Amino acid sequence: MERLVIAIDGPSGSGKSTVGKAIARRLDYLYIDSGAVYRAVGRKALDTSTSLEDSVSIVRLARQAAIKLEGDPDHLRVFLDGRDVTVEIRSPESSKASSVVATIPEVREAVVHKLREMSREGGVVMDGRDIGTKVFPQAQVKLFLDASLDMRAQRRCEEEHERGRDVSVETVKAELEERDRRDTGRLATPLVKAPDAILIDTSDMPLDAVIEQVLEIVNSRS
Fold it and tell me: Smallest Cα–Cα separation from 222: which of 146, 112, 122?
């Protein structure tokens, strides 16, 4: 069967990473978390004490950064300039930095180049916020996952607790609202559903049901 490119977009907490990993496992595809690449750029800015307001320097860092993803969907490791930063890029400060650097058009262009290089052979599941609109506008399968803000906040709060971060649903909800504003309001490839993407509202859907629906869509395109 043809090895497709599957693009999954959506806001934080919509379930796109969980679904993307599951689909990659079922199809034996490469899973690429595009958000991890932006997080790595944000981490590099923090590690080098580069001001997040210094866009010229941030762009230079993004272009120079050697970012590599290794492992299967359940054990994806992120390397920045040869150093394993898998845990570090999930910190609150890294999350904030990534959302700031991602608003810079030249940074997004640099990351898009890196993502395309990672996906040259096909057989890829990639999730993010502009995969179907910018990174792979010709992807054979385009999905846009969404969910209510309350549901997304609950999911993200549970994830944070699993990582050892003691945070309330209200705090996470506020963080998601701020992230949504940045993602949808940025000038460079804002978060938006591609015209030909299939919308899946995961608010009240069990994970297994979402996965099966996606697999049906993929099989129809193979």
Answer: 122
Amino acid at 144: F
DSSP code of 90?
G
Is the separation of the CB atoms in 192 and 184 below 8 Å?
Answer: yes
Which residue, 11, 31, 23, is CA-closest to 124?
31
Q: How many whole angstroms from its chain centre is CA 45?
A: 19
Which pLDDT band holds residue 1 (cuts at 50, 70, 90)?
low
Output the pTM of the full model. 0.78
Read off the pLDDT of residues 55-96 as tens digits, 9 standing for 90 and up.
999 999 999 999 999 888 888 899 999 999 999 999 989 989
State pLDDT tens for residues 179-204: 899 889 887 788 999 999 999 999 99
Q: Looking at the domain assignment, is residue 144 inside a domain?
A: yes
Do 130 and 108 meet the contact criterion of CB atoms below 8 Å apart? Answer: yes
User: If you search the block for the tokens 């971060």, which residue do you land on?
Assistant: 165
In whole angstroms, how large is the CA radius of gyration of the chain? 16
48 burial via Cβ count (<10 Å: 0-12, 13-18, 19+)? exposed
Q: Which domain holds residue 108?
A: 5-216
CATH code for position 121: 3.40.50.300
| CB-CB contact of 59 with 113 (8 Å) | no
| CA–CA dist 127, 10 (Å, integer) | 8
What's the structural domain count of the chain? Answer: 1
Over residues 134-154, the pLDDT tens digits come to: 899 999 999 999 999 999 999
